[in-house]
Design brief:
globular; about 300 residues; 4-stranded antiparallel sheet; mainly beta; about 0% helix
């Protein structure tokens, strides 16, 4: 396991920190407390800024949207959030309030489309669906039959979507059609059945390697483009959930964590659980695209 020095850059005692993402204009890291449900921002030497959404119970993830806005995956639907006015605008709700199913991780592809997954709250039945939402707000079913949809992330050229089948303990890869929101050639990219912990959030570096947070194992693994392991990094919290590159040179890896164990195989708790960590990896990451919702 490769030794690295991690710094706690924020300790908000998140019940379930998730969805870390760096904003290159703000020079700030954003993330969510899933059960807050809260969106957080840290940057420019100012204290953590938080927005809490009392009208819902879960904020599964977010992505950046044009005009300084955010697209939030709330349990009440996919909504556009304006941090200046505090307003929320409905964009789509493909889950349609299915009982016991909620939104989870999401990312924007190189074509500006949102990919968001759902999960079975009891983590037992394959009720999760991976959706694609285009700039007009049209919803497309990309794949289904997963208990917990996690990830996703895209190769540097956008031709491959990586996806964490969390309860299956594997990472799936798909070929992405740049013209239409269809996925092809589903295959197992990495079988993590022999690992401690469960594959959760993903990010891709500029070299085309995939980074995966292993929930319950307190580790981040780096996988080459052929799925083989390059390195494994211990993090001083049991329940690491997501990872994202940022910082002025895009070489700092930010890692979110959960305060309390809630998954099989959880390794326990520590004083650092629920913190946001950072470490300079000396490897450059990629800026995440924005979702540009088409005006009505």
């Amino acid at each position: 396991m490769t030794p690295h020095h991690w710094t706690v850059v924020a300790q908000e005692h998140d019940k379930l920190g998730e969805s870390a993402m760096w904003h290159p204009v703000d020079q700030a890291i954003y993330w969510v407390d899933w059960y807050g449900p809260t969106l957080r921002r840290l940057g420019n030497g100012v204290p953590v800024k938080s927005w809490t959404f009392s009208e819902c119970s879960i904020l599964g993830s977010f992505v950046f949207a044009a005009g300084g806005k955010f697209l939030l995956a709330l349990n009440t639907g996919i909504k556009l959030f304006d941090p200046v006015s505090g307003g929320l605008r409905d964009v789509a709700d493909p889950n349609q309030g299915r009982e016991g199913v909620a939104y989870n991780d999401s990312k924007v592809d190189r074509q500006g489309r949102l990919w968001v997954g759902t999960f079975d709250v009891k983590e037992k039945d394959p009720r999760g669906i991976l959706y694609c939402i285009d700039a007009a707000g049209n919803v497309h079913v990309a794949d289904s039959g997963y208990t917990v949809c996690n990830g996703p992330a895209f190769s540097p050229d956008g031709s491959i979507l990586y996806f964490s089948d969390t309860m299956g303990k594997r990472i799936i890869a798909y070929d992405v059609d740049s013209r239409v929101p269809h996925l092809r050639n589903r295959r197992v990219f990495a079988d993590l059945g022999g690992e401690t912990g469960l594959p959760d959030g993903l990010t891709v570096d500029a070299e085309g390697c995939l980074w995966c947070a292993l929930y319950g194992a307190g580790r981040i693994v780096r996988l080459s483009s052929d799925g083989s392991r390059c390195a494994s990094y211990a993090v001083p919290a049991a329940n690491v959930t997501s990872c994202a590159f940022g910082g002025p040179s895009m070489t700092t890896l930010f890692v979110t964590s959960g305060e309390n164990p809630s998954a099989p195989g959880a390794a326990g708790t520590s004083h650092a659980d629920g913190a946001l960590f950072a470490c300079d990896m000396g490897i450059r990451g990629l800026v995440e695209p924005e979702f540009n919702l088409r005006a009505d």
